[in-house]
Write the structure tokens for this entry.
Amino acid sequence: MQKGPYIENIREKQPVEGLYLVRDKNNGITKNGKPYIALNLSDKTGMIKGRVWDNAEKLDPGFDQGDVVFLKSHSVLYQGDMQLNVHAINRIAAEDADLSDFMPASSVDPEQAFADLQASIATINDPHLRRLLELIFEDARIVAAFKQAPAAKSIHHDCLGGLIEHTLSVTRIADMLAGHYATVNRDLLLAGAMLHDIGKIYELSFERSFDYTDEGRLIGHIVLGMELISDTIRLVPDFPAQKALLIKHMILSHHGQLEFGSPKRPKIPEALLLSYIDDIDAKMFDFTQFIEKEQRPETNWTGYHRLFNRYLYTGALAEKELPVPGADNGKPPKDV
Amino acid sequence: MQKGPYIENIREKQPVEGLYLVRDKNNGITKNGKPYIALNLSDKTGMIKGRVWDNAEKLDPGFDQGDVVFLKSHSVLYQGDMQLNVHAINRIAAEDADLSDFMPASSVDPEQAFADLQASIATINDPHLRRLLELIFEDARIVAAFKQAPAAKSIHHDCLGGLIEHTLSVTRIADMLAGHYATVNRDLLLAGAMLHDIGKIYELSFERSFDYTDEGRLIGHIVLGMELISDTIRLVPDFPAQKALLIKHMILSHHGQLEFGSPKRPKIPEALLLSYIDDIDAKMFDFTQFIEKEQRPETNWTGYHRLFNRYLYTGALAEKELPVPGADNGKPPKDV
Amino acid sequence: MQKGPYIENIREKQPVEGLYLVRDKNNGITKNGKPYIALNLSDKTGMIKGRVWDNAEKLDPGFDQGDVVFLKSHSVLYQGDMQLNVHAINRIAAEDADLSDFMPASSVDPEQAFADLQASIATINDPHLRRLLELIFEDARIVAAFKQAPAAKSIHHDCLGGLIEHTLSVTRIADMLAGHYATVNRDLLLAGAMLHDIGKIYELSFERSFDYTDEGRLIGHIVLGMELISDTIRLVPDFPAQKALLIKHMILSHHGQLEFGSPKRPKIPEALLLSYIDDIDAKMFDFTQFIEKEQRPETNWTGYHRLFNRYLYTGALAEKELPVPGADNGKPPKDV
Amino acid sequence: MQKGPYIENIREKQPVEGLYLVRDKNNGITKNGKPYIALNLSDKTGMIKGRVWDNAEKLDPGFDQGDVVFLKSHSVLYQGDMQLNVHAINRIAAEDADLSDFMPASSVDPEQAFADLQASIATINDPHLRRLLELIFEDARIVAAFKQAPAAKSIHHDCLGGLIEHTLSVTRIADMLAGHYATVNRDLLLAGAMLHDIGKIYELSFERSFDYTDEGRLIGHIVLGMELISDTIRLVPDFPAQKALLIKHMILSHHGQLEFGSPKRPKIPEALLLSYIDDIDAKMFDFTQFIEKEQRPETNWTGYHRLFNRYLYTGALAEKELPVPGADNGKPPKDV
Amino acid sequence: MQKGPYIENIREKQPVEGLYLVRDKNNGITKNGKPYIALNLSDKTGMIKGRVWDNAEKLDPGFDQGDVVFLKSHSVLYQGDMQLNVHAINRIAAEDADLSDFMPASSVDPEQAFADLQASIATINDPHLRRLLELIFEDARIVAAFKQAPAAKSIHHDCLGGLIEHTLSVTRIADMLAGHYATVNRDLLLAGAMLHDIGKIYELSFERSFDYTDEGRLIGHIVLGMELISDTIRLVPDFPAQKALLIKHMILSHHGQLEFGSPKRPKIPEALLLSYIDDIDAKMFDFTQFIEKEQRPETNWTGYHRLFNRYLYTGALAEKELPVPGADNGKPPKDV
Amino acid sequence: MQKGPYIENIREKQPVEGLYLVRDKNNGITKNGKPYIALNLSDKTGMIKGRVWDNAEKLDPGFDQGDVVFLKSHSVLYQGDMQLNVHAINRIAAEDADLSDFMPASSVDPEQAFADLQASIATINDPHLRRLLELIFEDARIVAAFKQAPAAKSIHHDCLGGLIEHTLSVTRIADMLAGHYATVNRDLLLAGAMLHDIGKIYELSFERSFDYTDEGRLIGHIVLGMELISDTIRLVPDFPAQKALLIKHMILSHHGQLEFGSPKRPKIPEALLLSYIDDIDAKMFDFTQFIEKEQRPETNWTGYHRLFNRYLYTGALAEKELPVPGADNGKPPKDV
């Protein structure tokens, strides 16, 4: 069965038919005493409301929250929001659905990104740090999760593949700055960059929706990542004790401040740089994604951004794009 | 050779002879071009300045900073401070000095405190947590350090034996409150209480002076302690994964707030209680010790306490002590 | 007339008949121009929406906001919320309603709690502090309010009897810690514990709903309580001036920090302890009550707690309760 | 005996003879073993160091800290500070010293200021508030202290008469703004202005030096002032309860924010205005006094002001004064 | 065509006919598939919802968001809110509408306020500052905008004419305080007062609704105002450089603190005073307007004020107004 | 005459002769009544105390604070600090001193750095921004100051040439990140990078010592720089208004947060990046310079860094340098 039209493309008064993910399902009863079902449906492009007004009792047993369903409906605009009036709806077997259709995904190809990371590992001169990286990124279960995980539940890089996209971006900037600041230990900085968020593969669950695991909420990715590194270091012969302290310190301090969850603040230049780069990459992702999403013809400004606590200017982006040649290359002009 | 009079007892214009610890040593030269040596000398009751005005060049090679020395001197009052004018000074062999004479020590007997802790361990019903505690507190090297370590470099319980004194006090209060709040898991709370600061045996060095180790500054006692627990849990057969998460969470969250260095805030009642008890015991130690130290006949107030950012009232203590019968029982009237 | 089924027990599609409290009443008009009445109804177990769709104009004069009413209805589920479709509704005389049916109440028996407090007063050695406590807790009007008042409008112990429940709990912990810390003046600490929130009987109104009084908002329970103590001290012969200062300081400083409304921070150990105990008892109430209320089979986590600014773990409680024998002992399983 | 030259006027290498206040006295011993005495001496214009190098043991018993002494000395510049080498020094009888010579005093005449305040009281229309003011400002002991007290130990208006100077200034601005904002209750605002700091007569001690009393540190002037008002209100027949709440609220909230020690924040416009006016008058005093004191020919800037956390510009004042005609009118050019 | 009844006066079940401003317009579709239009309508007294249930498709093209419309309707109460059921609606030509009917306007006459400001300018003695003020307030485009602009988008003085009302109020208080504090340079303070918010004519757009301009969000009124002053100073012959620095500093520092958007904090007394006066006038406007708007018979308290983060007392105002004689003097009793 | 040995190289008990800058000069008098002179002397490598014990009255008129002097002395260690006992001292003519000997200077050659910046300007595609940059960096007076100015009075890059060193470093990182983030407008980001601190040439004075100018303290480099840009833009034909807003916004927002003195926070991605890069470069300078300066054999840790509020680890740097081949390339191993 086929995916229906992407939710971001659904317009008023059209028939809509195909596969969607049921995020929420609630049974209700109208004032006339007639049962109905209220739904939130999603795919990787967004979320839309659904209503089963007719045959609700008959259709009810055919699907549940969390199912991928095949449905038939038509779209209406209700109080400013698009909504699907659903006529038919039925779950499909889990194996018949391609999950990547239903969850937002990074625009970066995780296989290519992983190959790029491996190429970076090969440039590490320090034998202990390189071996540590190799051991971690040779573990099939780690790699599988690392390629699929988001970088966050709901802030930056909150999409499948977001973790590897962010990790690669941080690693590349780290490489640039290691070249710029001559006193910086490039091997230590790059190893820290590649491993800084590795604990997120344990902190987050990312099947059908993104959420925190128990480990994530009780221990957190900073300490989970450091434990993985501690355990792996024991497998590297003669890993010097001081070097082990320093790479662990890189992970522990990468949020930069205690109040952001780092139990230690950076005390070596490499850790200071890593905390800045991590912050820049997360903020730039949010900033540019929000500006892109909130482009509106009638204004130069986005709506209010709660985390940045401000309105962002969308006009600059528009201006800049004019002279970009070859933007009509068939894919969206911006990939961030 | 004998310890000299305790520094807190030295009065003006008396001869002072015996053993002291050289905390700082600086060579100087008077305006007349005559060399002298400026010292800070200490024993477990405090610190005093020393000056070698005569024969400085001859006496200089006989001792160094960090040495225990035998000296002969007389005391003078200089600009409000007591000071020793030193006539003779020479290091003694390290093995001839009883370190506990020269560093402040808890008023609590560490052997008794450790026996009390072991009695508490025996009351833990949960077999996995009890085994975890037994394994840690059976390790001779851990126990030796645990009995001697201070609880802090310079804030609360900054004395030899301070760590075990504080740990026992926290454990006892935890036991009281576990009885008071019926829904609290006593075993989890007491295990957390006994282990919460165990990482300090690695965070601090405490030979001749208290300081942070490299591990202490780069990793910190919270994560160091959690690592010890992680490693020990692997030695306990069938330790349930969830229980492991919870005891580790107790350690990680025991500073209560991110900005105090906990990478996670308490998310179970037992962790919330532990963070409060730890804070109470540290603050009560400081509060009462400062009030006791700053008793002055001419005023009801201590000097300014930098960390509490206030003056404390000393009058209440005085008033309270009047009716206490039997205070002359041979031991110091206050044990905190 | 009889109380109807408790709101927390009402299920879909059942007839509901009996007494409820009208918390809000709003008249509306449907799109068809038909008048209706929208209600919020409550009893001590919670709140439920009500709708009068038929005969609204006729039933309207028979009751008002704030009334206890006898109603007949049936329950429906509407947009995920339970709701009563009301057919008949009429106020009953105030004297026919037992207010404790309609407002949340502490699980602690106020008479027993008061007896326990009086027993504590009898253990106070200091004659002036004991006389002060006796005078306050002999005043019939104070005692009546003290037994009934909540401890807060909407945070911790926000139920009838909450003030005495919280006061007794704080007093008991104070007694434990007075035994633990030898330098603490037990009499002063316990007197402070028993009186710390006495001003809340003036700060809050608690008839049919909990709200602040004018005194509460303009003066506040800290100063109101201190004024009561000031006035009562004048009735105690020869109350020493210094002791009066100290007990007043205990009340003024019990929020611990200026920004929490204490005009003075603790400057004696007893005041420091009281501020901690008060905070612990309030936070433990919230923490455990929220975890209990938010137990859900599909997750180990509560929803987001706005004041604690976090999610709490419910799994620990579940685990812990399994092995508790004899929980079916006829009283509520948790007393906090 | 006569006051010696004012300390602010003492220049290098001059004989200095007359009366001074001994603020601190410490006995010392030189490197040659000769005893000496180190002093801090003050009068209302400032502080100066004194040293008794000769005859220290003989002169020692003749005076103590806190005494007014008659001394003979000559001035020297030592390490950038002026210092008196004292040859003779002896206490004089307390009744022979005019305290106002030795402590900084407001440039405002307290008698005139009090007359001005009484004139303001007479303009209050509200009979209860006017009676309250009259009763307080008819009490001889209150009035005597009120005319002499400083407004602070060491920040703004920290001089004898500073309290009445500040109170009058706040009252006058309150009067202006009551005229400007038509909805403001002038009587309430002015009563609040006149009474807002009355508690400082109990909070501070101001004999020979300024310090906090026990009441000041344990209760504070805000609550002490409110208690005086509470007690006096009972003496005013038929004082309306609501009005009593409001005038007490004016006092309690006059620091504007909880973190500045007000247990309640302003909830009526009059209280909001009072908190602003109090703050303006204190800050303007500090700002202008500091600029005046720190006028230096070589720069347009004061030294660093710790409380304002900035450097202030002194050039504006200089510029402004040039064109002011008739500044030589016999009174000090600045009255702040 | 005529303005309809003011929105604040519309009561339930009355016919409503006349001119209103369409603030928002959204098309919807009922569950029965019938199109309707949801509106927000406003005039200078407030906002009301409108619904076009019948003939929505026919009436839809006749008006748009932002239009002034002539409508016919009747009022109903729906879920506690008043609402207009609209039968007929059509835009009118922009030139037929008097904008001041549809946007909130200051109660102060802008022409009178401007005349008052000009009178103040004439009292400035300093020739350069006076000329600067004259040049700015002689520019016809500036003056036109200055008379019409609000002082804020949505906080204080958010009404047509609000800027000049606030500027005049600040100037008057500045004049009072310049008289009170003898060392203050009156000319500098008054010039600062009159110019402090002049940049708001560029920061805000105020046609049909209040919003920020691009300049407003990217540069801000503080710097925009300073730039206007910089440019105008070049037109004043021989304007002294130091005086230019000081008047620019007055503008730059008038928010008092960096975190409120001032790039410099006050460093002269005049700037300190201006920052206080600006703050007082804004807060007093909000405070008194909110209290006035939230007068409700059943309570002495307003609802929660989000910015002040508190409830305000309305009882004081009521009490105060009773004895005010001659309030019926033909103008609104409150001018704020 | 010749510069004496660099201050950082002076060791105990050596003769020291040559040119130094007199930073402070104070006359004193010993206890024996003998006059002396206390000096602070500096060159570009640091500061040292000087004392004229003999012939002070004779030598006194020969030099003043701020002079470059030729002196003869010998070095002694006094209370842990090195000090020069001065026998002869005399000012030299200003033109005989090379100021760069006496003030710390960047290790970067300002001419080379300026050439690099000009090369960057040539890569700007946007004609208006490029013209703006050309006009500013063609102005001889601006360029002269820009090459010499420090970047701060006392924090990062506080050395002659520090401004151009920092500006070039920020520009290079900006170029890297413009390549990394595809949606970023490179021209706008680089123009912002090159101009962000240009106002510092007016904010700071840097002759013989670094200090703030009146403009610096009253207006600040952010607004001073923006004014220069505003004025220069008027000289560029047809500079688009929107582009002018954006480049001005880049300058105004480059401190990132209001509390750091930016009157606007970044609202475009380019401004966000610039604020991060500026912060990174300043912090990396401080971090690495402090670690380098505080290398001590006996510890892996620096002293306490007041601004970073922590101790930094020096061990990593040492470790890193060991394996770096070719470090003996004739230039200092670290260029930051």
